[in-house]
Amino acid sequence: MKTAEMQELTEQAIRAQLDRLTRSDVLKRSRRLQQFLRYIAELTLAGKADTINEYLLGVEVFDRGPDYNAADDSIVRRQAHALRHKLSEYYATEGKQDPIRIEIPLGHYVPIFQRNEEAPESDAAVAMPTPDDAAHQGKPAGSTMAAVAVFAVVGLVLAFWLGQQFASSPSAPENRAVVAPASPAVRELWQPWLGASEGPMVVFSSPMTAVVKQYPLPLPPDSDPPRLALPDELGQAFRERLGLGPDRYLYVSPTSSETKSGESLAAVQLANLFAGNGMPIRAISSALLTWEDFRRGNIIVFGHNEQNAWVDPLLADYPLRLQSTLGGLQRRIVNVNPGDGEPDYYEINYPSSGAQSTIEYALVSMLPGTDGLHELLLVSGLNTQATLMAIEFLTNEERAAQLVDDLRKQASDHDGPWHFQIVLKAEVREGVPTGGAIELTCIIGEQPLSRSLN
Description:
Blueprint: H1 4-8, H2 11-23, H3 31-45, H4 54-60, H5 75-92, E1 100-103, E2 112-115, H6 144-149, H7 154-168, H8 173-176, H9 184-189, H10 191-194, E3 201-204, E4 208-215, E5 228-229, H11 232-242, E6 249-256, H12 261-275, E7 282-285, E8 299-302, H13 311-315, E9 320-323, E10 332-335, E11 345-347, E12 358-368, E13 375-381, H14 384-395, H15 397-410, E14 420-429, E15 432-443, E16 450-453
Parallel strand pairs: 3-7, 3-8, 8-13
Antiparallel strand pairs: 1-2, 4-6, 5-6, 9-10, 10-11, 12-13, 12-14, 14-15, 15-16
Helix pairs in contact: 2-3, 7-12, 12-14, 14-15
């Protein structure tokens, strides 16, 4: 079903926006990126978005021959990264007031066309020609480095789109069909969340890596992929450390990390849960989150502390925390003050010779918000499959009932919202979680702290 906003985004308006982009200071000197953008936009407008793939772009846009192999030549991925960066830079500067935003979601080459309005009710992204190419929601940062750090993930796309689809047409049968009311156990877990005035903000991990390279000559300002010259003082420190001569020009090249697929799929399940209760969720990169956001509403944080800098400070006062890969140790969940019979930590158990399954773990922390007025949830899988298992215990009727039963056994007289930390174990075979169990439960807010080892 097309909304009025979709109908207003005519092909003429989109092509006018393409013209503005290609004439802009950001793109006017990048002829190949202009060709790239126009090619994928025209195919999408012509209803041929499903034909866009890496091989087609390599051959038709980047002049690779019919023997082009994307596995051996990353030209399309590199240029797509550069184009995303240019688009973010454009909309953070001269295109801030343009009527239409054009974006390319990470991991995809089909562009998204959306209205560029600040009003919340107009934030729904629109993909042409059909709404099945899920929308992307995001705000560019105010500087080049910050813009590079804002990486859209598939979960942000799908979660926001699902929520908006339900909210925009609550009476439409086709929209009601994709959501379902929460079961009693799920509602008990999410009681204060579902009673809030609006849906939560979902915070995705936003990892960022960078490579420092040396060049014999200065690079042009519009180099592809984009590179930033190191400041003199920092550059001198690198030269001294690495024994480089003064005639070397040093540049840092930010690169995006892998898409967090566990977070992405988990976000879709959360969107379904909240949309089923008429509460579309919002999404943001952890790089853009501020402490002020915790005072504005309920927040769900995905990721472990290697990829999301918010995890450590949010868990600092609680008994179960995360430890990143350090000194040859695996990433793990740490039990700060273990009780009798409790392990000090949980880490992935990889299969030994002859074994067929891997044992993975996730930490789920349903906590009071930092301001005491809102709610906070952290879902931290040590791996993708563990993240998916964790979200099942929060959204699946059978799993949620198992969790609620475990909580009630420890605190039979408990009344009000549940606040707890649990360690979940997932048995994974060939990349698929085939079993899940609650390993350790700590109920937060009970006096004394209630906990059980299962």
